[in-house]
Protein backbone atom coordinates (compact mmCIF):
# COMPACT_ATOMS: atom_id res chain seq x y z
CA UNK A 1 0.00 0.00 0.00
CA UNK A 2 2.58 2.57 1.09
CA UNK A 3 5.02 2.03 -1.83
CA UNK A 4 2.27 2.35 -4.44
CA UNK A 5 0.72 5.46 -2.89
CA UNK A 6 4.13 7.07 -2.37
CA UNK A 7 5.03 6.36 -5.99
CA UNK A 8 1.75 7.82 -7.25
CA UNK A 9 2.09 10.91 -5.06
CA UNK A 10 5.74 11.55 -5.93
CA UNK A 11 5.25 11.18 -9.68
CA UNK A 12 2.11 13.33 -9.54
CA UNK A 13 3.95 16.20 -7.85
CA UNK A 14 6.93 16.03 -10.20
CA UNK A 15 4.75 15.75 -13.32
CA UNK A 16 2.39 18.51 -12.19
CA UNK A 17 5.34 20.84 -11.81
CA UNK A 18 7.61 19.90 -14.69
CA UNK A 19 6.14 17.37 -17.17
CA UNK A 20 6.49 18.36 -20.85
CA UNK A 21 3.42 18.66 -23.12
CA UNK A 22 1.60 15.41 -24.00
CA UNK A 23 0.24 14.40 -27.41
CA UNK A 24 -3.10 13.37 -25.90
CA UNK A 25 -5.01 13.07 -29.20
CA UNK A 26 -2.20 11.32 -31.06
CA UNK A 27 -2.16 13.98 -33.78
CA UNK A 28 1.18 15.62 -32.97
CA UNK A 29 -0.45 18.56 -31.18
CA UNK A 30 0.88 18.33 -27.60
CA UNK A 31 -1.14 19.76 -24.72
CA UNK A 32 0.79 21.34 -21.83
CA UNK A 33 -0.41 20.61 -18.31
CA UNK A 34 2.46 21.40 -15.94
CA UNK A 35 3.28 24.56 -14.04
CA UNK A 36 6.60 25.11 -15.81
CA UNK A 37 4.81 25.14 -19.16
CA UNK A 38 2.51 28.07 -18.43
CA UNK A 39 -0.22 26.63 -16.22
CA UNK A 40 -1.33 27.58 -12.72
CA UNK A 41 -2.85 25.54 -9.88
CA UNK A 42 -6.32 25.79 -11.45
CA UNK A 43 -5.45 25.04 -15.08
CA UNK A 44 -2.64 22.56 -14.41
CA UNK A 45 -3.18 18.82 -14.80
CA UNK A 46 -1.54 15.50 -15.50
CA UNK A 47 -2.53 14.95 -19.13
CA UNK A 48 -3.83 11.43 -19.94
CA UNK A 49 -1.84 9.05 -22.11
CA UNK A 50 -1.88 9.54 -25.88
CA UNK A 51 -4.63 8.11 -28.05
CA UNK A 52 -1.79 6.56 -30.07
CA UNK A 53 -1.13 4.30 -27.07
CA UNK A 54 -4.79 3.35 -26.64
CA UNK A 55 -5.32 1.05 -23.67
CA UNK A 56 -1.94 -0.61 -24.02
CA UNK A 57 0.10 -0.94 -20.83
CA UNK A 58 2.81 1.72 -21.21
CA UNK A 59 5.56 1.50 -18.57
CA UNK A 60 8.84 3.38 -18.98
CA UNK A 61 10.67 0.37 -20.42
CA UNK A 62 8.18 0.09 -23.29
CA UNK A 63 9.25 3.47 -24.70
CA UNK A 64 12.34 4.03 -26.82
CA UNK A 65 13.40 6.89 -24.55
CA UNK A 66 12.28 8.85 -21.51
CA UNK A 67 11.37 11.79 -23.76
CA UNK A 68 9.09 9.56 -25.83
CA UNK A 69 7.47 8.18 -22.67
CA UNK A 70 6.78 11.69 -21.39
CA UNK A 71 5.53 12.86 -24.81
CA UNK A 72 3.01 10.01 -24.90
CA UNK A 73 1.74 10.67 -21.37
CA UNK A 74 3.35 7.77 -19.58
CA UNK A 75 3.17 9.43 -16.13
CA UNK A 76 -0.64 9.34 -16.25
CA UNK A 77 -0.77 5.55 -16.41
CA UNK A 78 1.93 5.23 -13.76
CA UNK A 79 0.06 7.52 -11.34
CA UNK A 80 -3.43 6.11 -11.95
CA UNK A 81 -2.51 2.43 -11.78
CA UNK A 82 -0.37 2.85 -8.66
CA UNK A 83 -3.09 4.97 -7.05
CA UNK A 84 -5.85 2.44 -7.73
CA UNK A 85 -3.72 -0.41 -6.44
CA UNK A 86 -2.86 1.61 -3.32
CA UNK A 87 -6.43 2.52 -2.42
CA UNK A 88 -7.55 -1.08 -2.99
CA UNK A 89 -4.86 -2.13 -0.52
CA UNK A 90 -6.18 0.50 1.88
CA UNK A 91 -9.61 -1.16 1.74
CA UNK A 92 -7.96 -4.31 3.04
CA UNK A 93 -6.05 -2.31 5.65
CA UNK A 94 -9.28 -0.80 6.96
CA UNK A 95 -10.85 -4.25 7.18
CA UNK A 96 -7.77 -5.55 9.04
CA UNK A 97 -7.85 -2.69 11.56
CA UNK A 98 -11.57 -3.21 12.15
CA UNK A 99 -11.08 -6.96 12.60
CA UNK A 100 -8.22 -6.57 15.08
CA UNK A 101 -10.21 -4.03 17.12
CA UNK A 102 -13.26 -6.28 17.21
CA UNK A 103 -15.29 -3.93 15.03
CA UNK A 104 -17.64 -4.76 12.20
CA UNK A 105 -16.29 -4.23 8.65
CA UNK A 106 -18.62 -1.49 7.44
CA UNK A 107 -15.94 1.23 7.26
CA UNK A 108 -14.02 -0.69 4.63
CA UNK A 109 -17.25 -1.58 2.84
CA UNK A 110 -18.23 2.11 2.71
CA UNK A 111 -14.79 3.06 1.36
CA UNK A 112 -15.35 0.79 -1.64
CA UNK A 113 -17.86 3.36 -2.98
CA UNK A 114 -15.33 6.17 -3.69
CA UNK A 115 -12.81 3.57 -4.87
CA UNK A 116 -15.38 2.28 -7.36
CA UNK A 117 -16.05 5.84 -8.53
CA UNK A 118 -12.32 6.47 -9.04
CA UNK A 119 -11.91 3.18 -10.89
CA UNK A 120 -14.85 4.11 -13.11
CA UNK A 121 -13.31 7.36 -14.42
CA UNK A 122 -9.66 6.27 -14.40
CA UNK A 123 -9.89 2.66 -15.61
CA UNK A 124 -13.31 1.32 -16.61
CA UNK A 125 -14.40 4.22 -18.83
CA UNK A 126 -11.05 4.45 -20.69
CA UNK A 127 -11.16 0.70 -21.34
CA UNK A 128 -14.72 1.04 -22.63
CA UNK A 129 -13.68 3.90 -24.91
CA UNK A 130 -10.59 2.06 -26.10
CA UNK A 131 -8.00 4.59 -24.92
CA UNK A 132 -6.56 6.03 -21.73
CA UNK A 133 -6.72 9.42 -23.46
CA UNK A 134 -10.43 9.41 -22.53
CA UNK A 135 -9.61 9.09 -18.82
CA UNK A 136 -10.12 11.99 -16.44
CA UNK A 137 -7.14 14.40 -16.33
CA UNK A 138 -5.57 14.82 -12.90
CA UNK A 139 -6.30 18.48 -12.29
CA UNK A 140 -9.06 20.94 -11.41
CA UNK A 141 -9.87 22.33 -14.86
CA UNK A 142 -9.22 18.91 -16.38
CA UNK A 143 -11.86 17.39 -14.12
CA UNK A 144 -14.48 19.91 -15.19
CA UNK A 145 -13.53 19.51 -18.84
CA UNK A 146 -13.96 15.74 -18.43
CA UNK A 147 -17.41 16.27 -16.94
CA UNK A 148 -18.52 18.58 -19.76
CA UNK A 149 -17.25 16.25 -22.49
CA UNK A 150 -18.85 13.26 -20.76
CA UNK A 151 -22.19 15.05 -20.61
CA UNK A 152 -21.94 16.16 -24.25
CA UNK A 153 -21.14 12.64 -25.47
CA UNK A 154 -23.29 10.50 -23.17
CA UNK A 155 -25.92 12.76 -21.51
CA UNK A 156 -25.02 11.14 -18.19
CA UNK A 157 -27.11 13.57 -16.14
CA UNK A 158 -30.26 11.89 -17.46
CA UNK A 159 -29.07 8.37 -16.66
CA UNK A 160 -31.19 6.93 -13.82
CA UNK A 161 -28.27 5.12 -12.20
CA UNK A 162 -26.24 8.35 -12.14
CA UNK A 163 -29.20 10.16 -10.62
CA UNK A 164 -29.53 7.47 -7.96
CA UNK A 165 -25.80 7.68 -7.27
CA UNK A 166 -25.88 11.46 -6.81
CA UNK A 167 -28.95 11.19 -4.58
CA UNK A 168 -27.18 8.49 -2.57
CA UNK A 169 -24.04 10.57 -2.10
CA UNK A 170 -25.91 13.68 -1.01
CA UNK A 171 -28.38 11.67 1.07
CA UNK A 172 -25.57 9.75 2.75
CA UNK A 173 -23.79 13.01 3.58
CA UNK A 174 -27.00 14.44 5.04
CA UNK A 175 -27.75 11.39 7.19
CA UNK A 176 -24.14 11.10 8.35
CA UNK A 177 -24.15 14.75 9.43
CA UNK A 178 -27.52 14.38 11.16
CA UNK A 179 -26.54 11.20 12.98
CA UNK A 180 -23.09 12.42 14.03
CA UNK A 181 -24.32 15.79 15.26
CA UNK A 182 -27.21 14.27 17.22
CA UNK A 183 -24.96 11.72 18.92
CA UNK A 184 -22.18 14.17 19.80
CA UNK A 185 -24.72 16.73 21.02
CA UNK A 186 -26.30 14.26 23.45
CA UNK A 187 -23.22 12.54 24.90
CA UNK A 188 -23.54 11.55 28.55
CA UNK A 189 -20.66 13.33 30.25
CA UNK A 190 -18.58 11.10 32.52
CA UNK A 191 -15.75 13.56 33.18
CA UNK A 192 -15.26 16.96 34.76
CA UNK A 193 -15.19 20.22 32.84
CA UNK A 194 -11.39 20.15 32.95
CA UNK A 195 -11.11 16.79 31.15
CA UNK A 196 -11.90 15.68 27.65
CA UNK A 197 -15.27 13.97 27.31
CA UNK A 198 -13.43 11.21 25.44
CA UNK A 199 -11.76 10.13 28.69
CA UNK A 200 -15.10 9.01 30.07
CA UNK A 201 -15.59 6.20 27.59
CA UNK A 202 -13.81 3.05 26.52
CA UNK A 203 -14.14 1.12 23.31
CA UNK A 204 -16.72 -1.66 23.47
CA UNK A 205 -18.27 -0.60 26.78
CA UNK A 206 -21.76 -1.92 27.49
CA UNK A 207 -23.06 1.31 29.03
CA UNK A 208 -24.63 3.78 26.64
CA UNK A 209 -22.51 6.76 25.65
CA UNK A 210 -25.27 9.14 24.60
CA UNK A 211 -28.88 9.89 25.49
CA UNK A 212 -30.86 8.37 22.63
CA UNK A 213 -34.15 9.65 24.08
CA UNK A 214 -32.90 13.24 24.00
CA UNK A 215 -31.49 12.79 20.49
CA UNK A 216 -34.76 11.39 19.14
CA UNK A 217 -36.72 14.04 20.97
CA UNK A 218 -34.69 16.80 19.31
CA UNK A 219 -34.96 15.15 15.90
CA UNK A 220 -38.70 14.64 16.29
CA UNK A 221 -39.29 18.33 16.93
Give a brief rundown of this model:
The protein folds into two domains: 2-157, Photosynthetic Reaction Center, subunit M, domain 1, CATH 1.20.85.10; 168-220, no CATH class.
Describe it for me?
The chain has 221 residues and is mainly alpha-helical. The chain folds into 2 domains: 2-157, Photosynthetic Reaction Center, subunit M, domain 1; 168-220, no CATH class. It has 7 helices and 2 strands. The protein has helices at 2-18, 66-71, 74-100, 106-129, 140-154, 160-185, 212-220, and strands at residues 45-46, 138-139. Strands 1-2 form a two-stranded antiparallel ribbon. Helix 1 (2-18) packs antiparallel against helix 3 (74-100) and helix 3 (74-100) packs antiparallel against helix 4. The radius of gyration is 23 Å and the shape is elongated. 20% of the residues are buried. The mean pLDDT is 90. Keywords: Calcium, Chlorophyll, Chromophore, Electron transport, Herbicide resistance, Magnesium, Manganese, Membrane, Metal-binding, Oxidoreductase, Photosynthesis, Photosystem II, Plastid, Signal, Transmembrane, Transmembrane helix, Transport. One of its GO terms (molecular function) is metal ion binding. This is one of the two reaction center proteins of photosystem II.
Amino acid sequence: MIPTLLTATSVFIIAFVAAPPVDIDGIREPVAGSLLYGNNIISGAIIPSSAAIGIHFYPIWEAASLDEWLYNGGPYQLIVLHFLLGVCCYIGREWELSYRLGMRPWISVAFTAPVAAAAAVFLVYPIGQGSFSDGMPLGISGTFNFMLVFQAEHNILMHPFHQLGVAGVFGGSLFSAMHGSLVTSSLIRETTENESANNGYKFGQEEETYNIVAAHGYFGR
